[in-house]
Amino acid sequence: MTTGTTATPLVAPRLSHRRVLKIAIPVVLSNVTVPLLGIVDTGVVGQMGDAAPIGAVGIGAIILSTVYWIFGFLRMGTVGLTSQAIGARNGAEVSALLSRVLMIGAVAGFALIALQLPIFWAAFQLAPASAEVEALARDYMAVRILSAPAAIAMYGITGWLIAQERTVAVLVLQLWTNLLNIALSLVFVLGLDMGVQGAALATAIAEWTGLVLGLWLCRAAFGVPAWRDWPRVFDRARLWHMAAVNTDILIRSVLLMAGFTSFLFLASDFGDVTLAANQILMQFMYITAYAMDGFAFAAEALVGQAMGAKAASSLRRSALMTSGYGLAICVVMAIAFAIGGGQIIDILTTSEPVRAEARVYLPWMVAAPIMGCAAWMFDGIFIGATRTRDMRNMMIISFLGYVVLVLILIPPFGNHGLWAALLGMFVLRGVTLGAKYPGLERAAA
């Protein structure tokens, strides 16, 4: 621990399997709570006995989640920058980074509140709904967007905690926010009959109290003067570097989302049954991603610290150890999908035509974890190293490859060609980032 700059431990323990698992397991447990919240929210609003409120909460939540997702770069960029500052034993910069991300969250959040009317208008132009559903969705979003500063700032707090390997704190934060949201939804919607606005108010309160808890978990940073060292916090070179890192991640993420979105749009050309089957099978990929997140996050923190410490050997060990666990998870997932994929499909849908169609394309889900493993793990490695320009450029190449594969494979192979193109994009990301990996070790040497 450095003296007089921060209360954050800056001397990392020896790299070990226990250390990797200590980072990864709380993240995996945290991810389990994410779908639970959506299920309970839908169930609570569903007790109102009308379809419109369910649709309103669903579409309102999707619109706001998409808008907030734009700022997801704040978590990834913060992990890389903070972990490198820890590796370099620069405690003052660790504290200053927390101040920066909190300010970004506040500015971005209040800007969204001020611009909510044009944002909502544009969203409903892209995804029109019935007059009743749209009116209820606007009521929902008008309340929930009041917590935008908290929701966006939480991206930064989460990244800051992950960089310090404090994923148990991230788990506590996630549990508090989601469980409070669930409890308040029950009180406001069922107990007080507040309808969709009650569901929105529950989320807004949960997010603001989550921010308060997050600040308390980061309280050590506020115990030293570095967090309010304004010349450092507003240092132009550091702000510019932070902006460049986050912009690269944003471009990469937008292209990745464009791939997934276009996949669903293209699937609609094959009919409703195939579209529904593809949507069911996409859940397999989300399950894999949730399981992989823990080890990708571990790679972000450990590789970032090694890069900050200019320790090439530690960087390699961190990359290999976390990727080994990631590969093991992917193999387990592939086997599980091969053995129990049919049962999972049956749980997710009761439609016999959709079940039958999903089974036709199930082999792609068996292959997906293995084909996507390298891409998922290299994302964590490159985020930790803040080599975001490489991430951006390799994503551009991979997306263009996906477009070419779509044009070549869909005409002769239909939906099989579409799945091959999507998984081909994963493979291209893994291969191209793998080709850039030696540069990380050279930079850390």
The rounded distance between the terminal residues' Cα atoms is 24 Å
β content, as a range? under 5%
The description of the largest β-sheet is: none
Number of domains: 2
Average pLDDT, all residues: 89
> SSE string, helix = H, strand = E?
HHHHHHHHHHHHHHHH
Fraction of residues in helix: over 70%
Overall number of strands: 0
The assigned structural class equals: mainly alpha
> Radius of gyration, rounded?
22 Å
> What's the total helix number?
16
Residue runs with pLDDT of under 50 for 5 or more positions: 1-8
Shape: globular
Tell me what the structure shows.
The chain is built from 16 helices and no strands. Helix 1 packs antiparallel against helix 2. The protein has 445 residues and is mostly helical. The protein is globular. It has two domains: 17-234, no CATH class; 259-444, no CATH class. The model is unreliable at 1-8 (pLDDT under 50). It has helices at residues 17-46, 51-69, 73-87, 91-114, 116-126, 131-144, 148-163, 167-191, 195-217, 230-233, 236-267, 272-308, 312-348, 352-384, 388-413, 415-444.
Topology diagram in text:
Elements: H1 17-46, H2 51-69, H3 73-87, H4 91-114, H5 116-126, H6 131-144, H7 148-163, H8 167-191, H9 195-217, H10 230-233, H11 236-267, H12 272-308, H13 312-348, H14 352-384, H15 388-413, H16 415-444
